[in-house]
Amino acid sequence: MNRLVVQGAEKTVRGIKVLDGVSVSCESGRVLGLCGANGSGKTMLMRAMTGLMYLDKGFVEYNGRRLGRDLDFIPRAGMLIENPAFLDRYTAFENLQYIAALIGGVADEAIRSRIAYVGLDPRDKRKYRQFSLGMKQRLGIAAAILGNPDAVFLDEPTNALDESGYGLMDRIARDIKTRGAIGIIASHDAAMLRRVADEIVRMEDGHIIQRQRRAVSPAPMQNGLEGVPKV
Q1: How many domains does the chain have?
Q2: Fewer CB within 10 Å, N side or C side of the chain?
Q3: Where is each ABC transporter domain found (predicted)?
Q4: Which pLDDT value is given to residue 163?
Q5: Contact of 59 with 131, CB cutoff 8 Å
C-alpha cells in the first residue's frame, strides 16, 4: 500500500505565506479533495506534494521517504497542475506518444484508449494549437492518467469543461480507487468533490479550516459526504 503524508507544511513566496502548518495524508484506494477559492493554497500544496516545490518547514513523505532528501519526485505519478501545455504542432496522439516514451511500456493502443476515455477522438488530425480550451484540458487529464500511475494529481480538472466533464471525473475517481492508486484533486467546485472524494479539506489563505471524511466508506460515487459545506 502506498501512502502520502504532508506534515506541518510551511512555504513563503515573495513575502506571502502560501502554506501555513498544513498536514494531510492519503493512501492507496482513496481520493483526497482540496477545496477552496483561488489563492487558498491548493495549487501550492500540490506542488509541494509532487516535488515541484520544496517547503521551508515541514515535510512530504511518500512511503516513508522524504521529498527533497530521499526522493526528488514521487515515482509513477501523473499530474495536471495549473494549465496544460503541449507541443503546438502535434496532434493529441503525437503529444501523448512523447509522454508515453518517457513513462515506458505504454503501447499506442493504450494511448488511443486514454484519448477516447477523456472524450477526444484519437484519430483527430488537428494540431494542439487548434484545440479549444476544453479539448486542451481533456488532453491534460489524459496525460495525467496515462500509464495508470500510482498517484494522480489533478488541479482544477473541470476548468473549461462542459457538463460531461463531471461524468469524466466520476469515472477517473472510481478508477483510482479500483486500481488502488492515490488521488489528489484540487477544486473550488465543492459539489464535484463531494461526489468523488473520500476526504475533503477546505483551505483558506494557506490554512486548512475544515476537514470532512466519509462516515462510512460507500461504493464510489454513490453517496455524498455528510456535513461538507456547499461552498
Answers
A1: 1
A2: N
A3: 4-230
A4: 84
A5: no
